[in-house]
Amino acid sequence: MMQEQHIQEFILNQTTDWLQEDLKIIEQEFPLHREQITASLAGVLTRICQQGYELQQTTNKGPAAYLCISFLRTNLLDDNWQYRLDLYDERFYLDPIECTESWEFDFIWQLLQRRMNQLMETIRHSLYANKIRSYHINQIRQTMAEQYQQAAILLTGTIIPEAVQQLDTAGINLAAVMTLLMGEYQDYSVALYEWQCDAKQKDEALCNISG
């Protein structure tokens, strides 16, 4: 029990300042990658809208009402930093017609991966080299990913307006309001954006978009 306590204290000391320090890097480097990341997100949003349009033509998928960008904890075990995008009709999670794409937000996750690599090197040269197990590493990865996920949500929120301006909805039938959310898969999420369409605009295939 005492050994586990020492291990947890060691882990805490090693990881406490990771995000705080990386936020400074994000502030400096994100503007350099902003255009590329925005275009990447716009491309994924366009593809999922195209897929949604095709499903509306061939299935009973209703008007698009929710678009979720989800962080998948299970992917972390494989060092997979992809986000899952799901387009739902007004039934939300009860929508039985799957419409999904993936998005790689490498800018954020590469920072965390670099930290994990540095930690592994530190552990190898520490007194805990033979005491820290794979479940400790997975625990660190999961805990820190939750923190870095908050940074990813904030950054995504800043580029959504620009990504939407590049978005081609490809004629997809939208609900009166379509909400874009980002968070964990079928769990807690934050609303980042809304498309608002009144009846007349829907007939004309035009929508007002508001942040």
Number of separate structural domains:
1
Reading side by side through the largest sheet, how are the strands ordered?
3-2-1-4-5-6
Task: Give the N-to-C terminal Cα separation.
Answer: 50 Å
Shape: elongated
Structure description:
Helix 2 (18-58) packs across helix 4 (106-124), helix 2 packs across helix 5 (134-165) and helix 4 (106-124) runs antiparallel to helix 5 (134-165). The protein is α+β, with helices and mostly antiparallel strands. Strand 4 and strand 5 form a beta hairpin. The chain starts with a helix and ends with a strand. Strands 3-2-1-4-5-6 form a 6-stranded mixed sheet. It contains 6 helices and 6 strands. The longest helix is centred in the first third of the chain and has 41 residues, at 18-58.
